[in-house]
C-alpha cells in the first residue's frame, strides 16, 4: 500500500540527536518540512523552542541556517531571498536553481514580538515560506502567556487562566493578501505536507503557515499524547484546517461531526481549572467560528 | 577536519560563488550525534499480536496476510498464504461456518469482515490457473498413512506431504472427500469446487487409494508392518444416530446422513407431498432444503430446541425460511403413523426443556400435549454416529461416546504411532474443526517421526498450531505476542467507518427444483473494497505512522528487512509511536524491566 511515508523522501535532513523534549511536535514538523523542501533550502530560525535544542553542537539541521532573534526572523527571509535574487542576477547562482527560503518562529515571536517585521515581509511579498510554530505560549522561556494563548488557559503568567482570547494570526496574515496562507496541524501529516508542497511549487511570494503544535511540557499532558491532542483539537473544531490560496478560502479538512470541546480540554492540565461556564463559552465560540467560517467557504 | 556531506567540495579551492554549494559558509555538520536514547525511561518496541480472526479460526488461517494480499492486489501472495494453512480454500470459502467472522473486531462496529468471501474469491480466481505446489520440507524418506479421505484426513495428509513425508490415504468409498463429497448438498458445495481442491492436494504429493477400507482385509497392523511409521485415523461419523420409536421401520422414513448420501451419490430419491424433518442441526436444514429440491410439497422442521437454541447456524435457518420451510420449535417425535407399511403422518409431543441445569442434553417432555401432522415422508436428522468397529483389537481406546480417545493437544491415541482427528474424536463436528485437527496432528506427527519428546514439547507449550509457526515461515522478524489483539489495542482514530459488503445469493425462485449453488459470492471490486475494511488487528500494515510521527527520527525503515525498526540510540521513549499505531503492534514497557 502506498502511503505518505513511502512518498516522502527517506533521507533525514533534520537529524536525530537533538535536545527537544520527548514527544515534541517540533521534531516532527522539522522533519516533514525539510523532507518536503529538500536540501536546497536556507532556514531563518527565530529564537523559539526549536532553535537552541536543534542548533547547538552537534547541530541537527543539515541545511544552512541563520539563528536570529525573535523579531527579525521574517526580515532574514527578506534578506536571504533578496541576496539570492542579486546573486542570480550577477550570474553567481544559476538562474534556474530553486532555493527555498523558509523561517520557523514561535507564536510569540510571530504574533507579538515580531508582528511588525512579519507584517512587513508579507506586505513586501518577499519570497519565502514562514512557519509559525504555534504552541500557544512562550514555552522556551518557561510557559508564559503570549497573544496566541487560548482563553482560560493556564500559563506561568496566567495562573488563574488567561482572560483574553487568542489572536487569530492566520486571518491577520490572510488580510495581507499574500499568495498563500495555510493552517496545519501535526495530527494531519497528509494535509500538512500537501500544503507545503503546494507552497513550494508556487511562484515567488510570501507564504504563511500556522502550525498547531501541542506542547506536552507546557500544556501539561503525557508526552505520548501529542498527536492525539492535535487531532482532538481539529475533531472538536477548536482548530480549523484551511488554506487561503490567492484569496480564496477553503476548509481542507472537515471533521465528520464536531466532538464536544471537553474531549479536547480534559486531556490537558492547562485547562484543569475551567468552570462549566468557561467550557460552555469555549463551545459557543467554536460554534460561532464554524458558522462564520463555513459561510466563508463557497462550496 | 572531517569533510561533511553538506559542505560539498573544499571551499578553499573554489573562487566563485556559483561554484559554492549553498551552505558553504557553514562549518559543516559534525559526524557525531547526541545519544538522546540515554534520556529514555520508557521503551517502545514492535510486538505484533494475534489477530482475533486467526485466533477464532480452528485452522489458524493466515487471514491478515491473505487479506493484505487482496487489498494490495497481490493475489499470488495471498493465494500462497492461504494454501500454506488450508488445503481446502474452495471448500472452506463456501461451507465453513466462519468463526473468524464471529471474532472480528469490526463485528460490533459496522459488521464483521466477510473473510469467507475473500477465501472463496481467491479459490475462484485461481480455479482455472495452475498453481505451483507448495513444498516446504525436503524429502524425509518416511512413510505415513491416513485412514479416511474426509477433510481431516486429507488435511493431515496435505500437511505431511508439505513437510516432505510420503503419504498414502486409504478411503473405503469410491469417491474421496468423505462428508464433503457424500453428504454436503451440492447447492452448498458444487462438485467441481471439491474436485479442484482435491487436485491441489494430490499435486502436493498425496496419494489417495479409493475402495480401500481398513478392517477386514487390510488391518492397521498390516499397515505398520508395511513400513507406515505413523498413521492418522479420520474415519468420520458417517452414520445417522438412530432412535427406536414406534413406526421408524415404515416405508418413507429416512435417516439424515444416509438420505443426503443417496442424493449426492446419484441414487434417485423422489419425494412428494408433505415432509417432516426431525432435528435442529445443520444436517436437518440440509435435509429440508434437499427434500424441497426433490419435489416435496411442503417441508416442516420439528426440533426440540427453540430457534435461538437450535444448533443450526442462524444464516442456514434464514436460508430455509426464505425457501418456505416452516419451523416447529419445542416439539419432539412421539411416534410415526403408518398405514399399510407406509408413512402417513407423525405425532409430536411437547418438549418442555432440552438441557438440564449443567447444560447437558436431557430433554423433558409433556406427553399429554401432542400435535399430529400429515406426512408422506419423515426424515430423522438427530445427529451423527461413528463406526469404529474396524479398530477392534488395535489397542486403541474408545471413549464411552463412541469416539477415539486422544491426547487433547497432540491428538495421539493410546497407541503411540497412531493419531486421530476429525469427527472420529470428541470435538465439534464441522469441516473447519476437522481440517484444523488434521493439521495439528500432522505437526505432532512430524515431531513424533523426528523422535522428539512430544510430552516435553507440550509441557513447554511449544507445539505449534499453524504451519508458519511450526516451520518458522513468518517473514516478519518482529516477535509475536501470544495474546489476541482486542479493540482496545487499536487506535480507532485511523479507522474510517466502512459499511460491509454482503455476498449475493440466488433468489429463492431460482433455487427451486435445482441444486445450483445458492451463494454467488462477491464481485472482484467488492472483494477489494471489503478487504480494505480489515483493521489489521495486532499486525503491522506498514502505514508509517511510527516513522512519520517520531520526533527524533528514531524509527526508520530497515532496508534489509523492509520493516520499520527503532534506533534506541536516539529514541527518547515518548511513546507517540505506540499511541498512534492503528494496529496495536507496538508496546511500551518501563526501561530496564523484562
Description:
The complex is a heterodimer of chains A (about 300) and B (about 600). Chain A has helices at about 5, 25-35, 50-55, 75-90, 105-115, 115-125, 170-175, 190-200, 215-220, 225-235, 260-265, 275-295; strands spanning about 40-45, 65, 100-105, 130-135, 180-185, 205-210, 240-245, 250-255. With about 300 residues, chain A is α/β, with parallel strands linked by helices. In chain A, helix 2 (about 25-35) packs parallel to helix 8 (about 190-200) and helix 4 (about 75-90) packs parallel to helix 6 (about 115-125). Chain B is an alpha/beta fold and about 600 residues long. Chain B has 20 helices and 23 strands. In chain B, helix 4 (about 90-95) runs antiparallel to helix 6, helix 6 packs across helix 18 and helix 7 runs parallel beside helix 14 (about 430-450). Chain B is globular and about 105 Å long. Chain B starts with about 40 loop residues before the first strand and ends with a strand. The model of chain B is unreliable at about 15-20 and about 25 (pLDDT under 50). Classes of the chains: A alpha/beta (about 300), B alpha/beta (about 600). At the A-B interface, helix 1, helix 2 and helix 10 of A face helix 19 and helix 20 of B.
Helix and strand topology:
The complex is a heterodimer of chains A (299) and B (594).
Chain A: H1 4-7, H2 25-37, E1 41-45, H3 51-55, E2 65-67, H4 73-89, E3 100-106, H5 107-113, H6 115-124, E4 128-134, H7 169-174, E5 180-185, H8 189-200, E6 206-212, H9 216-219, H10 226-235, E7 241-245, E8 248-253, H11 262-265, H12 276-296
Parallel strand pairs in A: 1-2, 1-3, 3-4, 4-6, 5-6
Antiparallel strand pairs in A: 5-7, 7-8
Chain B: E1 42-46, E2 48-50, H1 52-56, H2 63-71, H3 75-85, H4 89-95, H5 99-102, H6 115-125, E3 143-147, H7 151-162, E4 166-170, H8 179-182, H9 191-203, E5 206-209, H10 220-225, E6 228-233, E7 239-240, E8 253-255, H11 256-264, E9 274-278, H12 282-293, E10 298-303, H13 314-322, E11 326-329, E12 331-339, E13 342-355, E14 361-374, E15 377-380, E16 384-385, E17 418-420, H14 431-450, H15 454-459, H16 467-470, E18 480-484, E19 504-505, H17 508-511, E20 519-521, H18 524-531, H19 545-549, E21 555-558, E22 563-566, H20 576-580, E23 586-590
Parallel strand pairs in B: 2-18, 3-4, 3-6, 4-5, 6-17, 8-15, 9-10, 9-15, 10-11
Antiparallel strand pairs in B: 1-23, 7-16, 12-13, 13-14, 19-20, 21-22
Amino acid at each position: 500500500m502506498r502511503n505518505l511515508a513511502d512518498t516522502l523522501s527517506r533521507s533525514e535532513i533534520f537529524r536525530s540527536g537533538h535536545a527537544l523534549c520527548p514527544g515534541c511536535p517540533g521534531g516532527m514538523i522539522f522533519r516533514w518540512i525539510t523532507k518536503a523542501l529538500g536540501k536546497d533550502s536556507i532556514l531563518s530560525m527565530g529564537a523559539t523552542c526549536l532553535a537552541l535544542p536543534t542548533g547547538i553542537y552537534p547541530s541537527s539541521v543539515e541545511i544552512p541556517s541563520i539563528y536570529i532573534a525573535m523579531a527579525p526572523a521574517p526580515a532574514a527571509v527578506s534578506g536571504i531571498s533578496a541576496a539570492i535574487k542579486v546573486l542570480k542576477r550577477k550570474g553567481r547562482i544559476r538562474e534556474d536553481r530553486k532555493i527555498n527560503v523558509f523561517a520557523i518562529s514561535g507564536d510569540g515571536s510571530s504574533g507579538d514580538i515580531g508582528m511588525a517585521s512579519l507584517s512587513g515581509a508579507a506586505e513586501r511579498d518577499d519570497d519565502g515560506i514562514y512557519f509559525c510554530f504555534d504552541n500557544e505560549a512562550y514555552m522556551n522561556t518557561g510557559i508564559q502567556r503570549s497573544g496566541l494563548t487560548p482563553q482560560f488557559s493556564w500559563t506561568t503568567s496566567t495562573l488563574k487562566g488567561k482572560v483574553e482570547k487568542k489572536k487569530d494570526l492566520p486571518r491577520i496574515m490572510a488580510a495581507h493578501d499574500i499568495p498563500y496562507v495555510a493552517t496545519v496541524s501535526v495530527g494531519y501529516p497528509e494535509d500538512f505536507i500537501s500544503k507545503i508542497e503546494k507552497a513550494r511549487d508556487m511562484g515567488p511570494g510570501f507564504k504563511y503557515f500556522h502550525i498547531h503544535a501541542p506542547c506536552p511540557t507546557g500544556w501539561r499532558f503525557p508526552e505520548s499524547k501529542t498527536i492525539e491532542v492535535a487531532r482532538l483539537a481539529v475533531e472538536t473544531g477548536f482548530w480549523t484546517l484551511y488554506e487561503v490560496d490567492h484569496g480564496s478560502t477553503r476548509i481542507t479538512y472537515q471533521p465528520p461531526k464536531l466532538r464536544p470541546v471537553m474531549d479536547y480540554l480534559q486531556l490537558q492540565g492547562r485547562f484543569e481549572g475551567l468552570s462549566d461556564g468557561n467550557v460552555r463559552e469555549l463551545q459557543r465560540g467554536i460554534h460561532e467560528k464554524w458558522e462564520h467560517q463555513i459561510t466563508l467557504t463557497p462550496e | 577536519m572531517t569533510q561533511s556531506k553538506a559542505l560539498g567540495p573544499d571551499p578553499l579551492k573554489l573562487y566563485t560563488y556559483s561554484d559554492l554549494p549553498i551552505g558553504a559558509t557553514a562549518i559543516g555538520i559534525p559526524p557525531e550525534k547526541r545519544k538522546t536514547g540515554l534520556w529514555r525511561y520508557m521503551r517502545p518496541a514492535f510486538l505484533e499480536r494475534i489477530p482475533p480472526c486467526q485466533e477464532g479460526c480452528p485452522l489458524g488461517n493466515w487471514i491478515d496476510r491473505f487479506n493484505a494480499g487482496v487489498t494490495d492486489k497481490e493475489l499470488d501472495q495471498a493465494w500462497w498464504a492461504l494454501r500454506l494453512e488450508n488445503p481446502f480454500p474452495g471448500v472452506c470459502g463456501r461451507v465453513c461456518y466462519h468463526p473468524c467472522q464471529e471474532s472480528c473486531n469490526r463485528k460490533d462496529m459496522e459488521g464483521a469482515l466477510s473473510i469467507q468471501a475473500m477465501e472463496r474469491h481467491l479459490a475462484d480466481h485461481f480455479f482455472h490457473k495452475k498453481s505451483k505446489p507448495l513444498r516446504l520440507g525436503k524429502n524425509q524418506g518416511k512413510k505415513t498413512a491416513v485412514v479416511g479421505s474426509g477433510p481431516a484426513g486429507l488435511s493431515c495428509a496435505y500437511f505431511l506431504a508439505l513437510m516432505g513425508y510420503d503419504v498414502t490415504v486409504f478411503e473405503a468409498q469410491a469417491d474421496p472427500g468423505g462428508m464433503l463429497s457424500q453428504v454436503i448438498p451440492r447447492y452448498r458445495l458444487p462438485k467441481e469446487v471439491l474436485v479442484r481442491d482435491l487436485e491441489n492436494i494430490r499435486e502436493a504429493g498425496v496419494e489417495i487409494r479409493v475402495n480401500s477400507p481398513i478392517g477386514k482385509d487390510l488391518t492397521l497392523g498390516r499397515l505398520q508392518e508395511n513400513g507406515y511409521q505413523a498413521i492418522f485415523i479420520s474415519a468420520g461419523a458417517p452414520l445417522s444416530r438412530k432412535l427406536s420409536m414406534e413406526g421408524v421401520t415404515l416405508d418413507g422414513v429416512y435417516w439424515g446422513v444416509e438420505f443426503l448420501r443417496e442424493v449426492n451419490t446419484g441414487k434417485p430419491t423422489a419425494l412428494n407431498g408433505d415432509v417432516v424433518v426431525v432435528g435442529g442441526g445443520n444436517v436437518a436444514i440440509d435435509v429440508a432444503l434437499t427434500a424441497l429440491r426433490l419435489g416435496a410439497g411442503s417441508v416442516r422442521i420439528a426440533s426440540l430446541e427453540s430457534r435461538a437454541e437450535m444448533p443450526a447456524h442462524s444464516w442456514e435457518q434464514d436460508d430455509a425460511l426464505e425457501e418456505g420451510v416452516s419451523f416447529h420449535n419445542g416439539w419432539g417425535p412421539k411416534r410415526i403413523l403408518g398405514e399399510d407399511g407406509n408413512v402417513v403422518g407423525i405425532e409430536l409431543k411437547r418438549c418442555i426443556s432440552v438441557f438440564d441445569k449443567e447444560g447437558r442434553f436431557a430433554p423433558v417432555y409433556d406427553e399429554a400435549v401432542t400435535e399430529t401432522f400429515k406426512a408422506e415422508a419423515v426424515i430423522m436428522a438427530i445427529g451423527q454416529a461413528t463406526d469404529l468397529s474396524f479398530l477392534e483389537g488395535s489397542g486403541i481406546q474408545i471413549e464411552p461416546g463412541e469416539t477415539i480417545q486422544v491426547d487433547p493437544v497432540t491428538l495421539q491415541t493410546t497407541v503411540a504411532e497412531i493419531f486421530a482427528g476429525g469427527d472420529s474424536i470428541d470435538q465439534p463436528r464441522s469441516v473447519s474443526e476437522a481440517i484444523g485437527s488434521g493439521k495439528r496432528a500432522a505437526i505432532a506427527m512430524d515431531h513424533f517421526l523426528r523422535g522428539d519428546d512430544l510430552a516435553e514439547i507440550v509441557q513447554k507449550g511449544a507445539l505449534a498450531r499453524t504451519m508458519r509457526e511450526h516451520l518458522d515461515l513468518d517473514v516478519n522478524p518482529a516477535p509475536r505476542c501470544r495474546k489476541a489483539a482486542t479493540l482496545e489495542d487499536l487506535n480507532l482514530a485511523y479507522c474510517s467507518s466502512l459499511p460491509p459488503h454482503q455476498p449475493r445469493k440466488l433468489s429463492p425462485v431460482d433455487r427451486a427444483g435445482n441444486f445450483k449453488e445458492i451463494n454467488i459470492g462477491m464481485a472482484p471490486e467488492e472483494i477489494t473494497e471489503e478487504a480494505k475494511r480489515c483493521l489489521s488487528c495486532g499486525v503491522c500494515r506498514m502505514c508509517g505512522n511510527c516513522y512519520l510521527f517520531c520526533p527524533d527520527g528514531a524509527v526508520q525503515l530497515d532496508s534489509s528487512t523492509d520493516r520499520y525498526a527503532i534506533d534506541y540510540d536516539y529514541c527518547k521513549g515518548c511513546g507517540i509511536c505506540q499511541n498512534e499505531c492503528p494496529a496495536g503492534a507496538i508496546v511500551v514497557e518501563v526501561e530496564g524491566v523484562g
